[in-house]
Amino acid sequence: MLAVSDIVSLHAPLTDATRGMIDAGRLNAMKPGSLLINTARGALVDEDALCAALRSGHLAGAGLDTLAEEPPAQDRPILQAPNLIVTPHIAAQTGASITRTGVEAARNIVAVLTRRDIDRANVVNPVALDPP
Predict the structure, then answer these.
(1) What is the pTM of this model?
(2) pLDDT tens, 1-51?
(3) Which of 26, 89, 104, 107 is catalytic?
(4) Among this protein's residues, is 70 annotated catalytic?
């Protein structure tokens, strides 16, 4: 399936058997130009191998809403891949936390639009906000 799929989307629990299941071998087996989406558990994917596959152009891109280490350290190489989209992993949250997440996102949007300082702790790739 990896060799013929345009998009591979992960929806698996994290177990001893699934940890690192998307490794360099499986990424290399994926169809050139395909996409990897992980909305399950970060540790399912070998992030170093994914970074290499993205940088080489073998994969067209990846979308992750979870990483092996959260919150991620800002110097993680995977976060520098230009063809990677990372979104916050907010599954199974309470109503109050979902409201708070929306309020914080809205505050940051207003701050960006009004050229004020934003709360960088809530931004996955805050370097993208710095002028060139």
Answers:
(1) 0.69
(2) 999 999 999 999 999 999 999 999 999 999 999 999 999 999 999 999 999
(3) 89
(4) yes
